[in-house]
Write a structure and sequence with these properties.
single chain; alpha+beta; ATP Synthase, domain 1; eight-stranded mixed β-sheet; 2 helices
Length: 130
């Protein structure tokens, strides 16, 4: 389909989305990225945050934690460690996870601390947006 991007979002439990869209915005570990049709091939690690899918019927958001985004000539595939529709996320459900991640961060340094800090920042941003 000309002018569209084929997008698939997959978690270990299930495929959450598969279809042709206009654009997908992804929270990458090196910064946010927007993927449009005919994007150059790339692979990027994703951080905790929201994936926004833009289609003719509007915007849809998904909560993701960890994983990879793979852009090929065939489209975009996100393999997420954890993913769910944003409507299924609750602030109460994330509070205990935020506390556990914050406790883990106390004993870390360097690259390990950076990865956990990105996770914590993403969780806090999602809760703030709910």
């Amino acid at each position: 389909m000309a002018g569209k991007l084929h997008f698939s979002l997959v978690s270990p439990e299930r495929e959450l989305f598969s279809g042709d869209v206009n654009q997908v915005d992804i929270p990458g570990t090196e910064g946010d990225l927007g993927v449009l049709p005919d994007h150059s091939p790339l692979m990027a690690a994703i951080r905790t945050g929201a994936i926004t899918v833009y289609s003719d019927s509007g915007e849809t958001q998904y909560f993701v934690q960890g994983g990879f985004a793979d852009v090929t000539p065939a489209g975009l595939t996100v393999l997420a460690e954890k993913a769910m529709p944003m409507g299924d996320v609750s602030a109460e459900g994330l509070k205990s996870e935020i506390e556990a991640v914050a406790e883990t961060l106390k004993g870390l340094e360097g690259e390990a601390a950076l990865a956990v800090r990105q996770n914590l920042d993403g969780l806090n941003a999602i809760v703030a947006g709910l």
